[in-house]
Amino acid sequence: MKRIHILAVICIVVFAGLASVSHAQPRTTEITRRNSWIKVGLNAGLPIARLADQAAFTLGAEVKGQLMSTPNWGLGITSGYTHYFPKEAAENFGSIPAGLFARYYPAKRGFFIGTDLGYSFQTGSHLNGNGGMYVRPQIGYHNRLWNLFGFYNGIFRKETNGGHLQYLGIGTTFNILFD
Protein backbone atom coordinates (compact mmCIF):
# COMPACT_ATOMS: atom_id res chain seq x y z
CA MET A 1 0.00 0.00 0.00
CA LYS A 2 2.88 2.33 0.84
CA ARG A 3 4.35 1.81 -2.66
CA ILE A 4 1.04 2.75 -4.28
CA HIS A 5 0.87 5.99 -2.29
CA ILE A 6 4.48 6.83 -3.17
CA LEU A 7 3.79 6.06 -6.86
CA ALA A 8 0.66 8.27 -6.78
CA VAL A 9 2.60 11.18 -5.25
CA ILE A 10 5.38 10.79 -7.85
CA CYS A 11 2.79 10.77 -10.67
CA ILE A 12 1.15 13.94 -9.36
CA VAL A 13 4.50 15.74 -9.02
CA VAL A 14 5.65 14.68 -12.51
CA PHE A 15 2.44 15.79 -14.22
CA ALA A 16 2.31 19.05 -12.25
CA GLY A 17 5.86 19.77 -13.38
CA LEU A 18 5.05 18.92 -16.99
CA ALA A 19 1.96 21.14 -16.88
CA SER A 20 3.93 24.09 -15.52
CA VAL A 21 6.63 23.66 -18.20
CA SER A 22 4.03 23.48 -20.97
CA HIS A 23 2.25 26.61 -19.68
CA ALA A 24 5.54 28.53 -19.73
CA GLN A 25 5.79 27.97 -23.51
CA PRO A 26 3.59 29.57 -26.19
CA ARG A 27 0.56 27.34 -26.76
CA THR A 28 -1.28 26.40 -29.91
CA THR A 29 -5.03 26.23 -29.29
CA GLU A 30 -6.01 24.69 -32.61
CA ILE A 31 -5.58 20.94 -33.11
CA THR A 32 -3.84 20.35 -36.44
CA ARG A 33 -1.79 17.61 -38.07
CA ARG A 34 1.31 19.56 -37.02
CA ASN A 35 0.61 19.25 -33.27
CA SER A 36 -1.77 16.27 -32.77
CA TRP A 37 -2.19 12.69 -33.88
CA ILE A 38 -3.32 9.20 -32.89
CA LYS A 39 -0.70 6.51 -32.28
CA VAL A 40 -1.63 2.85 -32.91
CA GLY A 41 0.82 0.09 -32.14
CA LEU A 42 1.89 -3.36 -31.03
CA ASN A 43 4.26 -4.51 -28.32
CA ALA A 44 5.76 -7.73 -26.96
CA GLY A 45 7.42 -8.45 -23.64
CA LEU A 46 9.21 -10.93 -21.42
CA PRO A 47 7.87 -11.31 -17.86
CA ILE A 48 10.24 -10.65 -14.95
CA ALA A 49 10.03 -11.18 -11.17
CA ARG A 50 7.03 -13.25 -9.97
CA LEU A 51 5.18 -12.87 -13.28
CA ALA A 52 7.91 -14.98 -14.94
CA ASP A 53 6.64 -17.99 -12.95
CA GLN A 54 3.16 -17.67 -14.49
CA ALA A 55 3.60 -16.26 -18.00
CA ALA A 56 5.97 -17.09 -20.86
CA PHE A 57 5.55 -13.80 -22.77
CA THR A 58 3.17 -10.90 -23.36
CA LEU A 59 1.65 -9.48 -26.51
CA GLY A 60 -0.26 -6.21 -26.62
CA ALA A 61 -1.92 -3.53 -28.70
CA GLU A 62 -2.14 0.13 -27.78
CA VAL A 63 -3.77 3.36 -28.88
CA LYS A 64 -2.72 6.85 -27.80
CA GLY A 65 -4.06 10.33 -28.48
CA GLN A 66 -1.16 12.82 -28.44
CA LEU A 67 -1.09 16.62 -28.38
CA MET A 68 2.25 18.39 -28.76
CA SER A 69 1.85 21.09 -26.09
CA THR A 70 5.24 22.59 -27.00
CA PRO A 71 7.70 21.74 -29.79
CA ASN A 72 9.34 19.11 -27.54
CA TRP A 73 6.63 17.76 -25.18
CA GLY A 74 3.92 15.32 -26.24
CA LEU A 75 1.10 14.77 -23.74
CA GLY A 76 -1.94 12.55 -24.07
CA ILE A 77 -4.12 9.62 -23.09
CA THR A 78 -3.45 5.93 -23.61
CA SER A 79 -5.19 2.56 -23.49
CA GLY A 80 -4.91 -0.86 -25.06
CA TYR A 81 -4.81 -4.53 -24.16
CA THR A 82 -1.99 -6.84 -23.08
CA HIS A 83 -2.36 -10.63 -23.03
CA TYR A 84 -0.18 -12.77 -20.76
CA PHE A 85 0.48 -16.15 -22.37
CA PRO A 86 0.58 -18.70 -19.53
CA LYS A 87 3.16 -21.28 -18.71
CA GLU A 88 1.96 -24.83 -18.09
CA ALA A 89 -0.68 -25.09 -15.32
CA ALA A 90 -1.20 -21.31 -15.20
CA GLU A 91 -4.26 -19.42 -16.45
CA ASN A 92 -4.76 -17.00 -19.34
CA PHE A 93 -5.31 -13.40 -18.33
CA GLY A 94 -4.89 -9.88 -19.63
CA SER A 95 -4.79 -6.24 -18.63
CA ILE A 96 -6.38 -3.06 -19.97
CA PRO A 97 -4.50 0.13 -19.06
CA ALA A 98 -6.17 3.54 -18.84
CA GLY A 99 -3.69 6.33 -18.36
CA LEU A 100 -1.92 9.52 -19.27
CA PHE A 101 1.43 9.77 -20.96
CA ALA A 102 4.20 12.29 -21.47
CA ARG A 103 7.07 12.15 -23.94
CA TYR A 104 10.04 14.43 -24.41
CA TYR A 105 11.33 14.73 -27.99
CA PRO A 106 14.67 16.65 -28.08
CA ALA A 107 14.51 16.89 -31.91
CA LYS A 108 11.98 16.40 -34.73
CA ARG A 109 13.59 13.05 -35.49
CA GLY A 110 15.69 10.90 -33.18
CA PHE A 111 15.59 9.58 -29.64
CA PHE A 112 12.84 10.27 -27.10
CA ILE A 113 12.04 9.41 -23.48
CA GLY A 114 8.65 9.17 -21.85
CA THR A 115 6.33 7.41 -19.47
CA ASP A 116 2.76 6.18 -19.20
CA LEU A 117 1.02 6.40 -15.81
CA GLY A 118 -2.42 5.23 -14.78
CA TYR A 119 -4.51 2.26 -13.69
CA SER A 120 -4.50 -1.16 -15.33
CA PHE A 121 -7.61 -3.35 -15.08
CA GLN A 122 -7.06 -7.10 -15.05
CA THR A 123 -9.23 -9.44 -17.14
CA GLY A 124 -9.86 -13.18 -17.21
CA SER A 125 -8.30 -14.10 -13.87
CA HIS A 126 -9.85 -15.16 -10.60
CA LEU A 127 -6.63 -16.42 -9.02
CA ASN A 128 -4.29 -13.53 -9.79
CA GLY A 129 -6.18 -10.71 -8.06
CA ASN A 130 -7.21 -7.31 -9.37
CA GLY A 131 -5.56 -4.57 -11.37
CA GLY A 132 -3.48 -1.76 -9.97
CA MET A 133 -1.51 1.41 -10.62
CA TYR A 134 0.86 1.09 -13.54
CA VAL A 135 3.92 2.87 -14.85
CA ARG A 136 5.64 2.33 -18.21
CA PRO A 137 8.87 4.31 -18.68
CA GLN A 138 10.23 4.06 -22.21
CA ILE A 139 13.07 5.16 -24.44
CA GLY A 140 13.03 4.99 -28.20
CA TYR A 141 13.50 6.43 -31.67
CA HIS A 142 10.88 8.44 -33.56
CA ASN A 143 10.25 10.18 -36.83
CA ARG A 144 7.16 11.82 -38.31
CA LEU A 145 5.24 8.57 -38.98
CA TRP A 146 6.39 5.95 -36.46
CA ASN A 147 8.08 5.22 -33.12
CA LEU A 148 10.19 2.24 -32.01
CA PHE A 149 10.87 1.88 -28.28
CA GLY A 150 11.91 -0.32 -25.37
CA PHE A 151 10.08 -0.20 -22.04
CA TYR A 152 9.54 -1.55 -18.55
CA ASN A 153 5.90 -2.14 -17.54
CA GLY A 154 5.01 -2.46 -13.86
CA ILE A 155 1.49 -2.96 -12.50
CA PHE A 156 1.56 -2.52 -8.72
CA ARG A 157 -1.41 -4.18 -7.07
CA LYS A 158 -2.82 -3.72 -3.58
CA GLU A 159 -3.81 -7.38 -3.38
CA THR A 160 -0.72 -9.35 -4.31
CA ASN A 161 -2.13 -12.88 -4.57
CA GLY A 162 -0.19 -13.36 -7.80
CA GLY A 163 2.34 -10.57 -7.17
CA HIS A 164 2.91 -7.38 -9.05
CA LEU A 165 2.92 -7.74 -12.85
CA GLN A 166 6.26 -6.68 -14.34
CA TYR A 167 7.79 -7.19 -17.75
CA LEU A 168 10.33 -5.73 -20.18
CA GLY A 169 9.34 -5.18 -23.78
CA ILE A 170 9.72 -3.59 -27.17
CA GLY A 171 7.03 -1.82 -29.15
CA THR A 172 6.23 0.21 -32.19
CA THR A 173 3.51 2.73 -32.95
CA PHE A 174 2.36 4.27 -36.21
CA ASN A 175 1.21 7.91 -36.20
CA ILE A 176 -2.17 8.59 -37.80
CA LEU A 177 -2.09 12.30 -38.63
CA PHE A 178 -5.20 14.52 -38.54
CA ASP A 179 -6.45 16.48 -41.61
Characterization of this structure:
The chain has 179 residues and is mostly beta strands. It has a single domain, classed as Porin (Beta Barrel). It is built from one helix and eight strands; from the N terminus they run H-E-E-E-E-E-E-E-E. An eight-stranded antiparallel beta barrel has the order 1-2-3-4-5-6-7-8.
CATH architecture: Beta Barrel
Give the helix level as a range of percent.
Answer: 10-25%
What global shape is seen?
Answer: elongated
Q: What is the gyration radius calculated from CA atoms?
A: 17 Å
Number of domains: 1
The CATH C-level name is: Mainly Beta
Summed up, the helix count is: 1
Quick structural gist:
The protein has 179 residues and is mainly beta. Helix content is 13%, strand content 57%.
